[in-house]
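Good morning N.,

You mentioned wanting to compare the apo and holo forms, so I went ahead and generated the holo version with magnesium ion. This is what I fed in:
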Amino acid sequence: MRSLLLALPVLGLATGVLVALSPQEPAEQGPVGYEDTPQLPNSEWRVHDKFRPVPDAIVPGRPSTQDQVGSAPSDAIVLFDGTNLGAWEGGPWQLEGGVMTVNGKGDIRTKQGFGDCQLHVEWRSPDEPDRSSQGKGNSGVFLMGRYEIQVLNSYQNRTYADGQAASLYGQKPPDVNATLPTGQWQSYDIIFRAPRFDEEGALVSPAVATVLHNGVLVQNHVELLGPTSHRSLPKYRSHPEKLPIKLQDHGNKVSYRNIWIREL
Ligand code: MG
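and this is what came out, ligand included:
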């Protein structure tokens, strides 16, 4: 990391442009650490183990601001960068000015399936002064097409607690309401662990979701009771290890930008 930080400004100056580098460990650096330290419990490695592999170096993404869209980390799969809807099927939603917007043509879903993941999504509520509760800026991020992180305009808009923005819909409200005023871009950073089923289809371990809304932790490693349902108790049913992510068309012109995912 140190070498990358040193190299970036130098190369930036030399070329006069901002370049995304693929960082590498310097070839001359050998293993660093100890061979005589205690063994870590439940691990094949010692404390400060000299031979423990170092993690791959990646280039982190650039965070968004209200005015400027950010970028994905170098090891992420970009699902939407504002240029095209190629990663998605269904809809199609309206694509304009680097933003895609619900348009009444139905949900969209990724062509690729995903299980355990880190998902970054940015969304913006439309101005709908005459709408209220679940009718105001409703959309949703459905992990595996089943497990909804609710998208709703929850700025000064009362609805049932487990249906507001960043709720695990019908199961658990967010710990706080971190919603920004109508019209501002908001982010979800979701860490999701898919449920596990045995060969007979019985649940081995439930889905688990952690959600940061605008950088604020609002769902901390919460076990889901099952797939999202309305006015009823959820019930798990066996499904494949990877399934498409769905974005909901609930009839409100919610917009999205800068969507990327890292498989875990
Ligand atoms: Mg919804």
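The pocket of magnesium ion is lined by residues 138-140, 148, 150-151, 248, 250 (CB under 6 Å).

Happy to go through it together on a call whenever suits you.

Best,
F.
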